Amino acid sequence: MLDLESNERGVILRVRAYAGSRKNAVLGIREGMLRVAVTAAPEKGKANRAIITVLGRALGLPKSAFELISGDTSPKKRYLINGTTENTVREVFQYLC
User: Fold this and answer.
1) 3-class DSSP state for residue 77?
2) What residue spans define the domains of the chain?
């Protein structure tokens, strides 16, 4: 099950990033984290921006709704998603995974 935290501004989502993959995709859920693969290299924030694009497309939200709050250089990241609820995020990713 996906671990989500409510925040006064939205929802905090834990992500396990797989940078330099063959395709951009949501791979599934493991240990409460959403597994996201991106083709971008893990350099100068390219992979972080690509993850935001993948998450935005999945949730139907603009890139501006996402904020990386921890894990800038780590594969384990936390994103704040503004303007949504835990139930919405959980439903979308349960359906995709």
Assistant:
1) strand
2) 4-96
Radius of gyration over every alpha carbon of the chain, rounded to an integer in angstroms: 12
C-alpha 18/C-alpha 11 separation (Å) is: 22
Cα distance between residue 53 and residue 7, in whole Å: 21
Residues 6+ apart with CB under 8 A from 62: 56
Is pLDDT above 90 for 60? Answer: yes
* CA atoms of 47 and 6, how far apart (whole Å): 25
Domain boundaries 4-96, corresponding CATH code: 3.30.1200.10
Helix (H) or strand (E) holding 81: strand 76-82
Q: Which tens digits make up the pLDDT trace of 12-52? A: 999 999 999 999 999 999 999 999 999 999 999 999 999 99
Among residues 31, 39, 36, the alpha carbon closest in space to that of 66 is found at 36
